[in-house]
Fold these 2 entries.
Entry 1:
Amino acid sequence: MKAKRSKLTHIDPAGRPAMVDVSAKAVTAREAVAECRVRFPADVAKQLRAAGLKSAKGGIVETAIIAGTMAVKRTHELIPFCHPLPIDGCRIAADWHDEKSLRIECAVKTTHRTGVEMEALTGATVAALAVYDMCKALSHAIVIGPAKLLGKRGGKRDFGVSP
């Protein structure tokens, strides 16, 4: 049996790119949570742990949180068909996932006609990029990813874990 394919939402009937019209949708509370990992070479991870995730440039996690939050608020400027949204809440956390990987989680809330999945993904990935920037002097072998949506609530359907 063939799986039903969803229609791409950012394509108009003529096949051209288009922003989705959300004017007929109900305004509801919406949340999304995404994560991104940053994997360090073993010696770099050991050095960062010993330094309490601080560098000569400052606090690595603190800088990542600020960068990720700024990115959440500007997602519509970065992703062409994202709607500008009022962000009601944004929380970014970073902690060691294992000996060599930092896990960054971004949770975003709004009350609007469209969801905040892209904002959560943008926040998590830009926070990871900030970590890379803060640590690149130690190694260029740092790997960013995977990035993924963990869950969303509100709108037509919920997905994954409860944010």
Entry 2:
Amino acid sequence: MSERLAIYAEALFETLNGKTGHGVIRYGSREVVAVVDSTQAGRTASEVVPYCAQPVPIVATVAEAAALGADRLLIGVAPDGGKLSDAWRAALLDALERGMDAEAGLHSVLTDDPVLVAAAAKAGRRLVDLRVGPPDLDTPVGPYSRDASVRVVHSVGSDCAIGKMTVTLELDRAARARGERSVFVATGQTGIAISGWGIAVDHVISDYIAGAAERLVGEGAERGDLLFVEGQGSLYHPGYSGVTLGLLHGSAPDVLLLCHLAGQEAIHSYESVRLPALPEIVRCYEAACRPVRPATVAAIALNTRPLARDEDARAAISAAEAETGLVVDDPVRFGSDRLLDAVLAAFSD
């Protein structure tokens, strides 16, 4: 994946919906030459979103991105519902006319859009749909069919958009630095944009989600023997719990890593759905695994983003450790070593 990317995130780059762009900038191997967001033009990605960690220039138009050498426009926004808006279609058409490929991870499939298909054909450029999976998916064979030497770690969460992909990538990177044959297994469009492979399980027919997850574990095992499977959704989320459970049963993890946002008490956008205490969330995920393949939560990744001061973040981590008896840390803020130690130790218990 050697493209020179421009990330389109008009008016949304600084929001949580801009997480696709954020993740590609922080973790991706492709060069990102610009972010397109007229509301932040003149600044850099890391100024607007420090998590990005790269001073990618933000420009106002697709034309400016093309002038900087971008040869592919990626829709860097992950909205609820994942539909292509008229404004985004116009931006993609602009990019195609300027000799750029178009890439997106939406539920709206670019190659099903006749206007975009015609424009791409005329320009001799590609349309890339990150969310479209293999056509031959099926139900799983079963959780004990894999090689016993393969270790599977699965990140799960109390809610959506709290850092499951980030935690998985951080621990995979730390494990590889220690010499482990570690693999990040992408289960969503942003992870696929970063790693170049995977299946976006939320775009899969519900009967085949577990089969897709099982296939991903099998493909990951061809690349290494310590697999960090990216989590999706939450068992507590009214809209996305089905994806979570299918992925949980299909990947049949040995170890779970629970992700939680510090201070969160209810599901985002579903505030009537209150979250229980962390020990109950741990028990819920372990109980959900038990019918297929028992797994325990080895540690908790606490996203301390809402806490400005490091001392407050450390206090929240200490409180969560006292409450659960588990290792708790924020891998982005304080590093991954303690979480990785706990995960690896769980395999020897």
